Amino acid sequence: SVEAPLFPYADIRILRLVGEGTFSKVYFGIWKGTSVAVKVLSKKPPAQQKPTLSPDIEAELSSLVSHPNLVKTYQYGPQHASSNQMETGPGVSLVVDRGGVGVWILQEWCDRGTLQDYCTVPKVDVAGILETCDIMLDIGMGIAYLHDWNIIHGDLTPRNVLLTSQPSKRGYTCKVSDFGRARICDEETQEIKTQALGTVTHMPPELFVSNLKLASLSPKADVYALGVIMYQVVTAKLPFAGLSPPQVIVRVAGGTSLTLPDEVPQSLKRVYIRCVSREPKDRPDAKHLIKEIEKVKQELCGRFFNC
């Protein structure tokens, strides 16, 4: 059977466990007739793990932001045993945390899984490149919104981008999720000194060449990660596959970057190269990145399709 925690409300029906990480578990459930994801965060992450936002702050931050390309948070609160009437599905048993040491976040359910799961076939033909542009626009608009609020996501990867079905030609929309490593940067300097770093394969070189205890995290780190995501979407390959995290750090710090296939249009390659530039100042901000990708899409539509 699957163990499920108790929540403060009796109107959440937990049906199954759908994911589990170092600091959290995610359940699929029904709330007021709506499919939802219920994320349960550990109050005290293991000491040996990298620091993240406290579960309370992550929950509050996710509830304050609102954008079509960000996963929506409906409610959040401490986990406690106040409702013995909450329903569960077959094979799901309840776990009562009477110390109230967990935090739960009730979020919209994204039925198409992660972008990581979706990136299984290379997208190097014209239709694939156009779809890549749409994916990057979705993610870019969500990130631009966060940056407008001086929020750096800090761990932007295809695993943290969810797909939800939409009645459109593409059939889905991408939504950025997981604010466990998000940071609010200084409004003047547009950066923050932090120890909390994200996924090594998607981290920019400036976070490796400095003292990691005083790494300068800026919105341009998210833009670099967007470039790596573009590589994954186009190639359907994991970045730096086969290398250990220390090996990735040595490669990236030494100036190695991934390259897009020859079939990719030069206009998109130029955008990609700017995103993964070694120097943060050479990368576009998220809003300019959106404009550049829109130009690539318009160019391709004009040449090959009536978009």
Automatic annotation (TrEMBL):
Domain Protein kinase, chain residue ranges per copy: 12-305
PROSITE patterns membership: PROTEIN_KINASE_ATP, PROTEIN_KINASE_DOM, PROTEIN_KINASE_TYR
Superkingdom in the source lineage: Eukaryota
Keywords: ATP-binding, Nucleotide-binding
A Pfam family of this chain: PK_Tyr_Ser-Thr
Record-linked InterPro entries: Kinase-like_dom_sf (IPR011009), Prot_kinase_dom (IPR000719), Protein_kinase_ATP_BS (IPR017441), Ser-Thr/Tyr_kinase_cat_dom (IPR001245), Ser/Thr_Kinases-Pseudokinases (IPR051681), Tyr_kinase_AS (IPR008266)
Species the sequence originates in: Zooxanthella nutricula
Database matches in PANTHER family: PROTEIN KINASE DOMAIN-CONTAINING PROTEIN (PTHR44329:SF214), SERINE/THREONINE-PROTEIN KINASE TNNI3K-RELATED (PTHR44329)
GO molecular function: ATP binding; protein serine/threonine kinase activity
Protein name as annotated: Protein kinase domain-containing protein
Residues annotated for ATP binding in this entry: 39
